[in-house]
Specification:
Blueprint (H helix, E strand, L loop, with lengths): L3 H28 L6 H26 L6 H28 L7 H7 L2 H59 L10 E8 L7 E9 L2 E9 L3 H18 L6 H15 L6 E9 L4 E7 L5 E4 L2 E4 L3 E2 L13 E4 L5 E5 L1 H4 L10 H11 L5 H16 L7 E8 L1
Parallel strand pairs: 5-8
Antiparallel strand pairs: 1-11, 2-3, 3-4, 4-5, 5-9, 6-7, 6-10, 10-11
Amino acid sequence: MKKIMPILGSIARRQILFLALSTVVAAIFWAIGHQVNPLTILVYSIALGNLTMLATEQIVRLCSTRRFPYNWLLFLSTLLLLLLPVYLISSLLVWWLATPGPESLRHLITTDWKFPVLITFVVSAVIYLYRTTKDRLEKRNLALQRSVDLGRVQLKMQEQELQHAREIQQSLLPKEIPQLPGYQIAGAWRPARTVSGDYFDVFPIAKNRMAICIADVVGKGVSAALLMANVQAAVHAFAGESETPAGVCVRVNRLLCEYLATGKFVTFVFGILDGENHTFEYCNAGHLDPIHLSNGKAETIDSSGAVLGVFPDWKYEDREMRLLSGDRLFLFTDGITEAEGENEQEFGEDRLAVYARENGTHSAAELNELLLGEVDRFCGSRFRDDATLLVVAAI
């Protein structure tokens, strides 16, 4: 019953359409002053309409595999062949049910054929155009839906792959930051996308000596994350007990210059914290200047060399600073300073220095959390770039 009801509904809607068409035709004849039996028009409309619809549907199936204009040539040729039997059957029904006058069937067929044939031809062409257009649109919609479904599947797979990449990248960062007696070291990493081009690392290289580095790969996303992983591998390969920060920068730079694509580069700070001598020996390769908080004053350490991956023969230099009790050292990427608040105003290094000075008595972990939270509130959690922060506190 459920399958029959839609069919019956479709048939009923067709009859209503044919009834409306007969009404329009009768109105046209009345307007031009031509007297016609309304019942004749009604029977003609229903008979021609149903037979034409049935014939047109068969022709549509026959022509569906043909391209334009061959589909129309086949349709018109087949329609011309079917017009005669359709008209004859309709005329027979009209003569039997609603004879327009005392004329014979032969007279009805031979004299009144023009208008019914014209109407049948036009209606068939309109129906065929409607059906072919509908079928074409349905095929396009089906293809579009398949494309959308495929895109959703691919997008879901990409999201899963990116999530796996993020997990792998997070595993490359220090799970627990090693500490040095007399110092506290804390780090935070916040990617603007699923994966990040920022990198920080803290690892021991000798007794009472800790390597601390931070890097920012140009760009965002997967390509930057892959380059970041290469930088990390190179740093661990080249950093040793006897290697200076400048020496590490020289070797990493030569490696990147050999393999990096044009337009790619890395900003980098590598330093060695000496717990016995209370010094921080470092080399800055084009990175943002760290901020040193000492005796209530926050000053930037201006000693930047060229970025990594551009100039293979660049000579990097070591610098050294003292980190005494109460001092704080901030290393960060531009995702921190370039975070935008209202009116596209950036957080900036000056605001970072002021905040560090006003909260400099906190521990490294507390400063890390407080400062990142301040930046997050400032930009409304809308980070334009990857944000990484390292804080070293001398106890």
